[in-house]
Amino acid sequence: MYWHARAFRHVTPRPDVLAVGGSVDQSTSGLSLHDLAGFASEHQVRDVGVYCSSVRVGGAPIQGVRLAGLFQHVRVHPEAILVNVMSRNGFQATLWTNEILPLAIVAYARDGDILPRELGGPYRLLVPGLHDEAGDIWDLAVIEASIKPAKRPRNRRGTVPPHSSRPGEVQGGMPRAVPDPLDPRGLVAPEP
Questions:
Q1: Among 86, 118, 157, 179, which is 20 to 30 Å from 97 by CA?
Q2: Would the CA dihedral through 54, 56, 58, 62 be positive or negative?
Q3: Domain 18-146 fold
């Protein structure tokens, strides 16, 4: 049996376009407003404010595309369990793919024009219901599907719990139940 590692496609931020890369078959270093507007209608969100109260503003609604549509477009590898995102100001965060994929939306336009900077544009990642600083990322530059967390994430969601090699401990360092010293037929769960 031979092991063939799949290529990791690095992308860099560029002005006014969204880069999507990582563990994908077809990376893109520049999705524009017109590219995102051309995605299939099942991935389009005509009014992001219906899902996220933080983008309910007066006037024309904000349009977006589901992250699942972006991942389908670039053909993300199934082993990519994490999503690393980066904004143009250097903010980095790591999120679990299965946790955000059904919900995440990339807001990109308002009334047919690119999303203005005062509303988080040109691209803004929204994850409805996620109570984390990565749930609403303004000025989004890069989305990366990966098996590793970002180098310097601001949040700790992508941190894998530590594994213990000491007897009597399981994943995350939680103690196991041990035989009761007073009654060998019973078990005692030690204090955490």
A1: 118
A2: positive
A3: Sulfite Oxidase; Chain A, domain 2 (3.90.420)
